[in-house]
Amino acid sequence: MAPGALTRRNTPRMNTPVRIAVVAATVALAYPASAWYLGQRVETALNEQYAQLADLPYLRVVERNYDRGVFGATETVTVEFADPRPATAEGEQGAAAQPLRLTVLTRIKHGPLPGFSTLAAAVADSELVLDEAARKEIATVLGDRKPVELHTVYRFDGGGTGTLTSPAFATTLPANGDGSASRVSWDGVKLDLDFSAGLKQYSLQGNAPKLEIEDDSMRLVLAGLALEGKQQRVFDDDALLYAGTQKLSAAELSFQPKAGADEASMPVLLQQLAYDIEAPVNGEFLDIVARIGAAVVKVGDQDYGPAHYDLSLKHLHARTTAKLYRELMKVSGDPTLASTGDAAGAALSALSGPAMELLSHSPEISLDRISFNSPHGEARVAARIKLADIKPEDYSNAFALIGKVDASGEAALPLGLLTAWQGDGEVGARKAARFNQQLAGLTAQGYVTQEAGLVKSALVFRQGQLTINGKPFNPLALGELAGGGEHEHDHDMTEEDVEMLDEMEAE
Q1: What's the pTM?
Q2: Nearest C-alpha neighbor of 253 from the set 273, 275, 233
Q3: Distance of CA 328 to the CA centre of its chain
Q4: How far apart are alpha carbons 301 and 46 in whole angstroms?
Q5: Which stretches does DSSP call E strand in 258-403?
Q6: Under 8 Å between Cβ of 191 and 235
């Protein structure tokens, strides 16, 4: 027999049952240590998140209890939402202004196999803690279902995912002063959140299929509400300022009056609504672009859609913007300012420093577009203003400050719409005649052009000079046109009519 064969046969070997026992013992000893370590990391992450809440003016952690064991933990936290309304003259808020308090109970299971249902650092389930009276009230609508639930899964890298849900319900509210009851139906809501460690970035997506409110006089419907966004913190050392995208949209918002309702009430239908915000970072600067639009804007039988309102703030120095935003949060949550005689003045004084600093970086404010349809065609307006190379000493010199304003704008409005805005009846006809006379004078001087039924004009203010349609602006000539030659065409109008027109022109 070969020597090698004797050596292999004589070497002691661990049989299978022993190996399994060793592995099981190792796991049994290591798992509690892993669960304890992961539980400690989750608690630390939650502590950091609550520390960031301290920067929010209308939210305050009143009480927080965290009981951590080896395999799980329980957290009970009470938060207070301050009333944003100003205090009374005596500096005290009335009973109706008492802050809202909510208590949330969270049960946490530590990983690496929390609840032996998934592989994660931990899972947590949160719910509202309600008193007996509130539970009975909600039970009449939801039965034994919970009004809000949040399920969170914490990853090993410190990030995680969360899903917030609220159930559907239908109920009838008590009768109001006129004796009619309101019926409310809600198809529920779901919001999904994915976040990184320390909330440095997050993405969210949510939807609420339908809300319907109806009584004897009207029916209101909001359908297809959706929210999505992706945000990233601009600075690691500032927890408030984020950049990225957000979009709130709705398939339909409608208001339908019923027979017997107020005669002034008209049906309103908005479809494909969207509120879209983009906030990209370009080097040291931040842009904020907001767009509001609707494909259908129907009031009565007239559709004014598609309609758009686009506004942008560009070339905002990011670090200064963060400073201004933090100061704004501080001012808005300061109850002592609200109780002063001049709350607005005190707030502006507190914000003036970072605001002036922001202006020194040449920001640009732009009304990119206001547009809507009409029976006479599309109306469109845009404007921009930029403050170039502003220095602190310029604020004490009005002429120097005006010279650094760079502004422009343009408008294209249907002539038929401008005429219709003058009103109906005899007075409306006289106002329209007067308007047409003024418009003819402006067109003759080149301040206005008329093309294909549109009245167009463009203005530029640069280096202290104003031009309209490329022509230097003469305010005296425009004043003569607006005055209509001391009402030379108003000889057939009453004194009250002339006074009314003068008041409208002044406005």
Answers
A1: 0.79
A2: 273
A3: 16
A4: 54
A5: 268-279, 281-282, 285-299, 302-303, 307-317, 364-372, 379-387
A6: no
